[in-house]
Automatic annotation (TrEMBL):
InterPro entries: Aminoacid_DH-like_N_sf (IPR046346), NAD(P)-bd_dom_sf (IPR036291), SDH_C (IPR041121), Shikimate_DH-bd_N (IPR013708), Shikimate_DH_fam (IPR022893), Shikm_DH/Glu-tRNA_Rdtase (IPR006151). NCBIfam families: PRK12549.1. Residues 124-202 form the Quinate/shikimate 5-dehydrogenase/glutamyl-tRNA reductase domain. This is shikimate dehydrogenase (NADP(+)). It catalyses: shikimate + NADP(+) = 3-dehydroshikimate + NADPH + H(+). Coiled coil: none annotated.
Length: 286
């Protein structure tokens, strides 16, 4: 008599954010889990659909008490979540934001996979992009990861703009603490765009829930390369305007896929197949 085959390992994970119904992260994780023989369930915890919105602490408690292996964290909670974690990875300490939380042995471990995700996306999509001077729009949770990644990838002068000048200054100080003299606050966006070879949007502007652009598109020239971290919709207003002017562009797809590749390994303990996760991402209808 044959022994019953063992049941697949089960992982329950999720994503906390505001306005995330069109996220492609869940199917990437679920499909990769199935390919590796895991029973992986992925919940969307969308505070944009909740009234009233529970405190983040309560959402984390619920997930941990329910036996979740971990959570992805997105806008607007990447900085707020730090106060609710027990241990921070080196990347979180450096960037001041977390996008992945792992629950293990009753503790919460914070990680940031956005840094590597953006860097890998840039390396693959625009490997020869000029990097003498780049304008970064947004210094929030994602902006911190993108800013550090840009400098890590060779940007010599990073100009940072944010609607909150204090946040822009904080990111500049953080970058210059590790790589002195490489970042500065952009006081005049028009002048900054004129000086920059590349423009990267690291704000939520352009998301389905927050349409529009974080910069006047009249400031974009054909000589610019333009990147965006937003991927739903894939073709943001910023990228559409840049493409219409003949700019080389990079959508948020690369960052979305590669941050998920790292998060999958953190959740399950098993490396993910990046090409397979990318194929799942691209197979999803807009």
């Amino acid at each position: 008599m044959n022994a019953p085959s063992p049941s697949p390992r089960t992982f329950q994970v999720g994503l906390i954010g505001d306005g995330i119904q069109k996220s492609r992260t869940p199917p990437m994780h679920v499909a990769e889990g199935a390919a590796q023989g895991f029973d992986l369930c992925y919940d969307l915890i969308d505070t944009g659909t909740m009234d009233p919105v529970p405190p983040l602490a309560q959402l984390l408690d619920r997930a941990q008490d329910a036996g979740f292996a971990g959570l992805n964290i997105t806008f607007p909670y990447k900085k707020e979540v730090l106060a609710h974690l027990d241990t921070l990875s080196d990347s979180v300490t450096k960037l001041g934001a977390a996008n992945t939380v792992v629950f293990r042995d009753g503790k919460r471990f914070g990680h940031n996979t956005d840094f590597w995700g953006f860097a890998e996306g840039l390396r693959q999509r625009l490997p020869d992009a000029e990097k003498d001077c780049v304008l970064l729009l947004g210094a929030g949770g994602a902006g911190g990861a993108v800013g550090h990644a840009l400098v890590d990838q060779g940007v010599q002068r990073l100009l940072v703009v944010d609607r909150d000048p204090a946040m822009a200054q904080a990111l500049v100080d953080s970058i210059n603490r590790f790589t002195p003299g490489r970042a500065e606050v952009a006081r005049d966006v028009t002048q900054a765009a004129a000086q920059a070879q590349g423009i990267v949007n690291a704000t939520p502007m352009g998301m389905a829930k927050l349409p529009g652009t974080a910069i006047d598109t009249a400031l974009i020239d054909p000589r610019h390369w333009v990147g965006d971290i937003v991927y739903f919709p894939m073709e943001t207003a910023l990228l559409a305007a840049a493409r219409a002017k003949g700019c080389r562009t990079m959508s948020g797809a690369g960052m979305a896929v590669f941050q998920a590749v790292r998060a999958f390994e953190l959740f399950t303990g098993q490396p993910a197949d990046a090409a397979r996760m990318r194929a799942t991402f691209e197979s999803i209808a807009p």
